[in-house]
Amino acid sequence: MPLNPQHTYVHLAEDGAATQLPGGEAFWRMPEADIERYGSGWLVSEFEFDTDWPTWEMHPNADEFVYLLSGSVELHLEQPDGVHKVSLNGSGTVVVPRGIWHTAKINAPSRMLHVTRGAGTEVRPV
Questions:
Q1: Which of 22, 39, 46, 58 could form an SS bridge with 118, CB 3.0 to 4.6 Å?
Q2: Cα(53)–Cα(64) distance, rounded to whole angstroms?
């Protein structure tokens, strides 16, 4: 049965099991303990953006695979030697290394697919 990753996230567990979860705001409204339970595997999710991200985020336990499905974005990655800007237009992929703070500037309405381990994710304002 086909899934829409904006409405149904998929958690890929260490043992290879795939669990469908409510996506979008329903996922983020779950109790923190439930969200953390899914932090040890890989979470596959899709988001639509029409404004810049209001926060920086950092995943300390794994790299993040970010795939632009449509639109135009500029990802900002805070590297030890300064902020690196990566432009994606139409489609494209960036692997954000673990421990690297990142945010996005939206140049045109965009859809992005994210695959990440959520455990320990940190967020700070832009």
A1: 39
A2: 16
DSSP letters along 81-111, please?
A: TEEEEEEEESSEEEEEPTT-EEEEEEEEEEE
Rounded Cα–Cα distance for residues 7 and 110 (Å): 16
Please indicate, yes or no, if residue 2 is contained in any of the structural domains: no
67 close to 47: Cβ distance less than 8 angstroms: no
Per 3-state DSSP, the chain is made up of helix, strand and coil in percentages (nearest 5) of: 10, 55, 35
- Domain contains 124: no
**Integer Cα distance of 74 and 106 in angstroms:** 6
Rounded average pLDDT per 10-residue block, the chain, 126 residues: 89 93 90 84 94 97 97 98 98 97 98 92 95
pTM equals: 0.89
Which CATH number fits the domain that encloses residue 41?
2.60.120.10
